[in-house]
Write a structure and sequence with these properties.
about 150 residues; Nucleotidyltransferase, domain 5; two-stranded parallel ribbon; 7 helices; about 10% strand
């Protein structure tokens, strides 16, 4: 599994998580990457809001306690909404970029190297487009009474 975070100002580090992720591993990843990314982009902790979906790992008590302890705001996310998380579109972009390589990967390590390379090439304009699409997405979701939308 690959985990990464994005901001309006750029991407944070991505990390490779061997095997399956659980809430303890997720907290370890958050501890290592969230605040570093926040500081790197000089984001005001008072207005910083972390967004994630409602995957079971994300909503475990250990994770909620981590956010509470660090006083990090987490965006409320409807339990059964379509996945509007803009990072999903970023991952789709990465997958597309990986499909353009002329040769297949020979190992997980080589795949990870390619992902890291593509991650560092993400255009800031793409991030801006994804963030700026959120109000439209939310309007569409509201009009569709929480049902699936074109995103």
């Amino acid at each position: 599994m690959i985990w990464g975070c994005m901001t309006y100002y750029g991407v944070g580090d991505a990390c490779w998580i061997p095997g399956r992720i659980n809430s303890k591993v997720y907290v370890d990843v958050l501890q290592e990457y969230i605040l570093v990314s926040q500081k790197w982009y000089d984001m005001d902790p008072k207005t910083f809001i972390f967004q994630q979906d409602n995957a079971r790992v994300h909503t475990a008590s250990i994770v909620r306690n981590f956010f509470r302890k660090l006083k990090l705001k987490v965006m409320e996310w409807p339990a059964n909404s379509p996945d509007l998380n803009p990072i999903e579109h970023l991952w789709a972009h990465i997958k597309y970029r990986l499909s353009l390589y002329p040769k297949s990967v020979k190992s997980l390590e080589e795949l990870w190297e390619r992902i890291q390379d593509e991650w560092t090439k993400i255009d800031i304009e793409l991030l801006h487009e994804l963030y700026e699409s959120m109000p439209r997405r939310m309007q569409m979701l509201y009009k569709n009474k929480g049902g699936h939308i074109k995103y």
